[in-house]
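Q: Can someone sanity-check these two? First one:
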Amino acid sequence: MAETPEYSALMQRRLRGFKLHLLAYAAAMVVLIVVHVIVQPEQPWFVFLLVAWGAPLAVHCAYVMGVFGGGR
């Protein structure tokens, strides 16, 4: 089955949105880990935020990959 230009554009938009989400996640985690090391290195509080934001990021990845069947 050939891809239509509309479907291709939709998938490009979804992928671009995921890349931005991933970039924001990575940048925020780097900042949070640095703050963690400086402020309170004995308690790993940043792990909660890493998982709490990582779960929606994983769902976003699944959506972009078409796991939920929302493509065609």
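And here is the second, same format, sequence then tokens:
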Amino acid sequence: MSKTIKIDPITRIEGHLAIEAVVDDGVVKEAKSAGTLFRGFEIILQDRDPRDANRLTQRICGVCPTSHATASALCIDDAFGLTDKIPDNAKLIRALVLGSNFLQSHILHFYHLAALDYVDAVGALGPLSPFVPRYEGDYRISGEANAELVNHYVRALDMRRKCQEMLSIFGGKMPHSVGIVPGGVTERPAEDKVTNFLWRLNEIRDFVDNVYITDVIAVAQTYDDYFGIGKGCGKVLTYGGFDLPAGRFFKAGVVSQDLKLEPFAGENITEDLKHSWYADSGSGLNPAEGQTEPQLGKKQAYSFIKSPRYKGEVFELGPLARMVSNYVQGDAKVKEMIDPLLAQFGAGPEALFSVLGRHAARALEAKLVADAMVDWLCALKPDKPIIVANEIPAEGVGAGLTEAPRGSLGHWMTIKDKKIERYQVITPTAWNASPKDGKGQPGAVEQALMGTKVKDRDNPFELVRIVRAFDPCLACSVHLLDAKKNALGVFKVV
């Protein structure tokens, strides 16, 4: 007999996400991922000064505004014809600011969002907020090891603070920094700024090397069955990110299930709206021509998330995608990190497509970025320019494709009469947590849930562990309001 499990909202993620799973004989046969918030920023930006996008799109999310600052700046640079004119100092400082946000976000995800699925904080501290309410059971780490992980939960708060301080040295403040702007950056790489940045970075690197990665491995050793849970679609995609003077740090790529690489081309992205609360007239379009026209009550729709697709297929984005892409493309540093980890668990690259594979990829990526940031910092030249003069063109088209902590982020803009005619944003979670498309293909999170064995239907911890491994972020949204003040839905926090 089948039973439907609905968790609405999923807690310990950014924003509001509902999950519905149909369980038959203890196995998930069908799953739905529903974004229950409406994004209105594309509409808000219409008819504004194109430079406003750099400020307003950061308000999409208070956790990852730096990624939107980067994507919007790249988009405006492209539309203004500045892409090949950005000074090297500006590229390096943009990368350092974005890298600081990556480190903060990855530490946040493991310790303060996902770790409590495996670490028994209640057993160590008692039933205190924010550790309750929770799903109970399957806490396998005990004694001193569990207490140490709880201590690291607290220590990670301080590390995140130092990441934010580091970001603010060149970004001005956090959230919603003012350091990344069209044409370059606002802060010069003065010696005192470089020094203050470096000592914080070295402390964070020590934490990543000796605490974060060690803790992820400890959890993996205890929960090694989760290397076989939550595979998902098995295909990954990355736009590439961190624009440096010598090229992009993360290489763009599309990797199939058999780990074959294809070159990435932005024109192959489309958005399907079959099961989304948006007018079908915008379905199947590339985001450069995309539309955002809400249509509440649309038949067969169940989410305010659109369904981005690449060549009509479902792909997973995020740290796993970036690490797999660089691995397949022969990145020596990535291979030096991944191969020993896989050997330690007697697993092949396919094990990366799992709950623990995603956590491991995120931790290793934190080390990769943190170590690289030392080189970026040392390459700064205090006497060189940081910005190029620019003006608004009468007409223009731009795209800003970059990487956010949770995956590839894209901004697309059309300028007409020196104002924004069209602006479209596709966030990483739009790819990962998308609903089914017109061909009936479930999104990446939905596919990861399907086939999962649920031991206790009233305590489905397996499902939330899978979802949180993707680090979904739906904070890029605004609440849907009814002007007549009618209730549109009642949600129960579990």
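A (reply): Looked at the second one. The chain has 13 helices and 15 strands. The two ends are 24 Å apart (CA to CA).
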